[in-house]
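Example: Ribosomal RNA small subunit methyltransferase G.
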Amino acid sequence: MDSVQQWFQQQAEGIGIALSERQLDQFETYYKLLVEWNEKMNLTGITEREAVYEKHFYDSLTVSLAVDMKGADSLADIGSGAGFPGLPLKIAFPHLRLTIVDSLAKRIRFLEEVAGQLQLNDVVNIHGRAEDIARLPAHRDRYAIVTARAVARLAGLNELCLPFARPDGCFIAMKGSGVTEEVEESRFSLQKLNAQLEEVKRLELPLEHSERHLVILRKNGPTPKAYPRKAGLPLKTPLL
Ligand code: SAM
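Written out as structure tokens, the predicted fold is:
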């Protein structure tokens, strides 16, 4: 184990996650694949090793501060891109059934490769728009936890993500700074989508000290039939 892995293991421990050597190896393989595939396709602007461990891997794991991961059985990550936060969470909490939805086919191909090389079970990577996939009975109102990072402003994002959460399940939106206005702006969408704001947790990245927020939204009951609207509409004309 080198110093970056040691640092990462300590940081994970600091938020209550004990990572084994095997899990640390999985993170390292993930890092290598990310950098390798990033030369052929646009996966991330962050490639420096320490930065990937901090801003992608560690940042993804902070979701566990918002919800009891051990008590949850399933997680859907919407607009996962190169796999964040879904894949790091799956590595750290292997019991989770993970579904990833992304509208870009080449990113889904990358995620298939990572899941295969890391020998992760119970990972389903779906190429499609969240609006369409959330209409399928196998995914609608089904997941204990839904996550999204850097996909859209909350008012529109709620309509893409909340339909995946089961009644009493939660959607955790990972946000940077300046979240207050976005949360206020999203109140109407919560009402329409049968959900409520539970808490906004403020965090800081350990090295860079930049601000992060976890917006925790709780589903009150099933998704009303009208939602999500036709693909494209939630982000083009958010529920405001
Ligand atoms: N969550 C990742 C992260 O934080 O690094 C990726 C963020 S990337 C900026 C946004 C991703 O959302 C892209 O991969 C894009 O293809 C996907 N996306 C955007 N709209 C979507 C939709 N309606 N349904 C599914 N995926 C969507």
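The longest strand covers residues 165-175.
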